[in-house]
Write a structure and sequence with these properties.
This protein is α+β, with helices and mostly antiparallel strands. The protein has a domain of 30 residues. Helices cover 28% and strands 21% of the residues.
């Protein structure tokens, strides 16, 4: 039962801080038909987004650089990985930064093979 008075005091403290609005009555203006005051724009803390600077290619700086064309397809990478590993079942082929990562199942073991472009 000790928590109730502490929570009540905290609630009153928060309500008291919210009731004391910064600024003058002229900044807040008149309440609307529901009795709600609109916050002035300068006190709302809203700022326009910063301008976007063009990147080296003239596009947005938030775009990822274009991927280079691959000289090897995923199917060719899978066949090369099987040749390099001495066979096996292809479980997955994933693009890597400099080629493909191929997962092969052979003799109950999963091997990951990097096939360069």
């Amino acid at each position: 039962m000790r928590r109730l008075p502490a929570m009540l005091m905290l609630g009153l403290l928060v309500l008291g801080a919210a009731a004391t609005r910064p600024g003058t009555a002229a900044q807040w203006g008149a309440p609307d038909e529901h009795g709600v005051y609109a916050a002035p724009v300068q006190d709302a803390g809203l700022r326009p987004p910063p301008p976007v600077r063009p990147g080296p290619q003239g596009g947005d700086t938030f775009l990822a650089p274009p991927r280079p064309e691959r000289s090897l397809s995923a199917g060719e990478a899978a066949k090369r990985a099987q040749q390099m590993n001495g066979g096996g079942r292809v479980l997955s082929v994933e693009p890597a930064t400099n080629g493909y990562r191929v997962k092969l199942l052979k003799d109950g073991e999963v091997n990951a093979v990097l096939v360069p472009d």
